[in-house]
Write a structure and sequence with these properties.
Glutaredoxin, 7 strands, 41% helix
Length: 189
């Protein structure tokens, strides 16, 4: 009997378990534990940052009435889509600019009857500033000119912030910060 088998036989006979692990298994285990730790930290930061947003326990969304960038009036109660994505942004926000392409792409792949997308600009100085942002980022969805009351009603304190609502205008999802196209698509299903 060779040494390794003899040791296994002795360990089996004595009831002890051989806990020797290969170097590769140690690396994989270390990688998994580090990934779990990083994931836990990211989730904790997300939970902390979004703690003051509106709850998503299917409560009815606040009212949303504002002038649109094109000068027409908008009344949220008149919408008819199955799902609505409301995206709050500021024209000076770099993360908002980075994620605007994802909003545009989402609009191209989802029909307007299936998904209503509204951008609400907050913390803006002039309509020209908003027009420049829309032009620079090639925004293809309606933009509402928000105000302090809307920001307070929707608990907006960071940009970008977005909410997803169901067909009955109840809050389904909430988030803030950059979101990928896949993340936006998933939240609007």
């Amino acid at each position: 009997m060779d040494g390794a088998r003899q040791r296994s036989a002795v360990l089996a006979w004595t009831g002890k378990i051989d806990l020797r692990v290969s170097a590769r298994a140690k690396r994989v285990l270390k990688y998994l534990l580090e990934t779990l730790a990083i994931g836990t930290v990211v989730f904790a930061l997300y939970a902390y940052n979004s703690r003051d947003l509106l709850t998503t326990e299917l409560q009815e969304a606040p009212d949303l009435r504002a002038m649109m960038l094109d000068g027409s009036d908008f009344d949220f109660a008149k919408g008819s889509a199955d799902t609505t994505l409301i995206y709050f942004f500021a024209p000076w926000c770099k993360i908002c600019s980075a994620s605007s392409g994802n909003i545009n792409f989402l609009r191209r792949v989802r029909s307007e009857t299936d998904l209503q997308i509204l951008l609400v600009v907050l913390d803006w100085q002039s309509p020209d500033e908003v027009h420049e942002y829309v032009s620079r980022n090639e925004i293809t969805v309606p933009v509402l000119l928000g105000n302090r009351r809307i920001a307070e009603d929707w608990n907006i304190y960071a940009y970008p912030t977005y909410y997803t609502l169901d067909s009955e205008r109840r809050l389904k999802h909430r988030d803030l910060g950059y979101s990928t196209f896949a993340g936006l698509w998933w939240r609007t299903l």
